[in-house]
Structures are given as structure tokens and as C-alpha cells.
Amino acid sequence: MKTATVRELRNQYRSVLEWVEAGEEVTISRRGKVIARLVPEKLKPRQVDWTQSAALRLERKTLPVLTAWQSKSLLADSRGSF
What we know:
Elements: E1 2-5, H1 6-11, H2 13-21, E2 26-30, E3 33-38, H3 54-57, H4 68-79
Parallel strand pairs: 1-2
Antiparallel strand pairs: 2-3
């Protein structure tokens, strides 16, 4: 848990917000007394329905087998290098 004063919150809001976004709980104090807590929002993990995936519906037996050179070339293209 991190602590910030009201002055730090006012002057360095972006830094304090980055702490919260990173999952840290931040206590805010004024004159040495805690007056508030900033707590990151707990988001529900997304559920993916993989049965609707196009990759699962793809007929893999009809796909050509790539050579090592073809695979290397495809990877280089996807990374933007040649």
C-alpha cells in the first residue's frame, strides 16, 4: 500500500493514478491523518466463447504444410523485417 498527501495528490495526480492503475491501493492523508483510500476497480475477467472461433471451425487437413523457409518468411513479414 502506498501513501500520498493531499498536496502530492494535487501536484502529482498522474503518478498517483499510475499507482492505482498498476493495482496499488493508495491512502491519502492530510496533516498526518488518513482521510481517503484510492482502490483499483476490480474488473470481471472476460469470458471468451472459443466454440465460435473461426480457427476452430477451420478444416486443418486441407491446409498446406509450410516449409521452414516459408515459415521464417511469414514470421519476418509479420514482424516487419525482411
